[in-house]
Amino acid sequence: MTLRHLLGLALVVSSVFAALPQRAEAGGLFLTDRGVRPLSRGFAFVAGADDPQALWYNPAGLAYSGQQFLFDATLTFLRADFTRIDSGGNVLPTVDVDAAKLPIPMIAYSHPVREDLVLAFGIHAPNASLLRWPRGVSAQGGTCDATSDPSADCEAAPQRYSLYSLEGSAFVNLTPAVAYRPIPELSLGVGLHLLVGRFVGETAISACDGFLCTQPENPEWDGVAQFDLNPIVHPGFTIGATYDADVVRIGASMVWWPGAISGEADLNVRLPSAPLFNGARVEGDKAQLELDLPLILRAGVEVRPTPRFRVEAALVWEHWSTQKAAKITPDDVWIRDAVAIGDYQVGPIEIPRNMNDVWSLRLGGTAEVIPDRLEVSAGVNYENSSFDDAYLTPLTLDARKVVVALGASVRVTDTVFVDVSYGHVFMADPSVRNSAVPQNNPIRPPRSPDVPASSGGAVYIGNGDYDMEADIVGIGMRWQVDAVSAPAPAEPEVDAPAPDAAPEASDEAWPRADEPADSDGPTDPAEPENSTSDGGERPWYDR
Question: CA 10, CA 285: separation in Å to the nearest integer?
Fold first, then answer.
C-alpha cells in the first residue's frame, strides 16, 4: 500500500465540489434561464424587460415596471438516463436520474420614488437541477442500495464515481437594484446579486491503486463521502442600460462575480470495506473550496411595429472558460493508523473543469390578441454546451440545447395580470467514447490511457450514452399597483348644435371653441394618445 492511498480516504468529496452552484444559466447544475414571462419569450428579455424580472435580465428595465409586485414560479421536469461503458469496455445497466421537482420562485417589488427613479428588491432562485441517481441496480432491473446492503442481487451503481445525490441543496439570490432615467429615452440600472445557500451531496471514490488492487472498479475498494457546504454567501453585481427609440428598444446588461466562490465544507467519510482499511480512520472533517465564476454579457433589440406587437432578438455570452479547475484545500485532515503507513496529512489538490464559453441566441415576442385583456407569447432559444463531451459526466449533465416556448398573459382585473408559460428543452444526446474525467481516485496521478486500467492505468468514468430532455411549466401573478383602468368603449358621436344654438346648461360642459376657457373651469379634453391627464406618459399596458 502506497502513501497515496491516504488521499483516497480524505478527498472523496473532490469530484463533487466541481459542481458547486453557480447561477441560473447553463453549466451543469443549472439547466436554463429563469422566470415565467421570460420563458414564454424563449428568455429573450433584455431590451423588453419591463417588470421586476428585470432584476435578473437587465436592471435598466425596472424604469418601465412602475409600482409592481410580482410572484411567479416555474417547475422543471428533467428526464435523463446514462448507459455507462466501464474501463473494461463493458456496457453496464442503464440508470435513470431522479431530478427533484422543486418550484423555482421569484418574489419581487418595484417602486417609483419619482418620475425618473425606480427602486426594486427581489428574492429568486436559480433553475437548478438537483440530481439523484441510484445507489445500486438489482439483477431484476430495478434499483437498490448497494452502499448500505451490498449483495449478489444488488450491484454497485454504474454512475457512482460521478454522483449519488445532491438532495438537500438550496440556493437563492437576494437582489436590490435601482433604475434611473436621465432623459426620457435612456434608462440606466445597477443592482447587487447576493447568492446564498447550501450545497449538499454524496459520491463514491475508489482507493484501488493498481498494485495491491488490480480491479479498479471493485466495490470493496469504494468509499462513500457526504459533504455539506453551508452557508454559501457570494456577492456579485449587475449593470444595464436601455435606450427607447419608440419603435425600437435596445438593451444591454452585464453580471460580474468578482473573486471566486469559497467556503468551508463539512465532510463525512465512510472508508472502503476492503480488509486493508480495517482499523484506519480519518481525523479532520473540513476542507476549503475555491471556484471561479464567469462574466456574463447580454444584449437585445426589441422592435414594436405596432402598439400591440413586439419581438426581441437577444444574444447572451458567458465566460465559463475562466473556470479551469476547482481548488480544494483540506483543513488539517489526517489519515490515522493506516496499514504499514501510520499517519499522513492530506494536502491541496485541483480538479480539472476545462469549461467552454457559453453563448445563446434567443428570439421571442408577444402579441395582444384581445385588446387590454389577453397577450400571447412565443420564443425559441439555442445554447451550446458548457462542456466538451470529454468532460461530460452524470454529475454535470449539459449539452447543446434548444428551448421552444409558448405563453400567455391575462389581465384579470384592471391591476392584476396572470402569466402562464410552457417550454420544452430539446437536448443533444451525446455518445462519449473519449472521456477525460478520471475516476474519483486521488491515489496516484492518472496514467496514460495506453496503459490498461488493470495494470494501474487511468480509469475514465464519462464514457457511455446520454439521453436528456426537459419540460418547464410556469405560472405567475403581477399586481400593477399604479395601473389605470382599461379604456371604456367610445360613446357614439352626436351632431353638434348649430353655432347660434345655446348649449344646454351643464356643469360638465366643455367651453365653446370660440370662447376662452374659464380659469377655474375644465381644461381641453384633447390629449396626446399616450398621455395621462397630468401630461405624463401612459404606462405600456394602457396604450
Answer: 9
Question: What number of other Cβ atoms are within 10 A of residue 519's Cβ?
Answer: 5
Radius of gyration of the chain (CA): 30
Burial class (CB in 10 A: 0-12, 13-18, 19+), 403: buried
Alpha carbon 77 to chain centroid, angstroms: 14
Grid coordinates given for 199: 450545497
Cell triple for 471: 419540460
Domain that holds residue 454: 5-489
Which residue, 110, 100, 81, is CA-closest to 29?
100
Residue 37 phi, psi (nearest 5) = -65, -45
Give the pLDDT confidence score for residue 428 in this predicted structure.
Answer: 95
Does residue 529 sit within a domain? Answer: no
Tell me whether residue 522 is in a domain. Answer: no
Which residues have CB under 8 Å from 260's CB, separation 6+? Answer: 290, 291, 292, 293
| 238 lies in some domain | yes
Residue 301: CA count within 13 A, CB half-sphere = 4
Count of other CB atoms within 10 angstroms of residue 490 = 6
C-alpha 398 chain-centroid distance: 12
What domain count does the chain have?
Answer: 1
Enumerate residues 6+ apart whose C-beta is below 8 A from 236.
Answer: 192, 193, 194, 195, 255, 256, 257, 258, 293
Residue 498, in any domain of the structure:
no
Q: What is the pLDDT of residue 93?
A: 94
pLDDT in tens, 265-317: 887 778 788 877 777 888 888 877 776 778 899 999 999 999 999 999 999 99
DSSP 3-state of 17: helix
21: helix, coil or strand? coil
The answer to whether the peptide bond before residue 452 is cis (omega within 30 degrees of 0) is: no
CATH code for the domain in which residue 19 is found: 2.40.160.60
User: How far from chain centre, in Å, is Cα 415?
Assistant: 30
Give the DSSP letter string of 316-333: EEE-GGG--EEEEEESS-
pTM of this structure: 0.81
Cell reading at 309 = 406587437
CA dihedral of 109, 113, 117, 122, whole degrees rounded to 10:
-20
Integer angstrom CA distances of residue 321 from 149, 293, 296:
41, 9, 12
β-partners of residue 326 are 351
- pLDDT beneath 70, residues of the chain: 1-30, 150, 260, 291, 325-328, 335, 338, 340-352, 441-456, 484-543
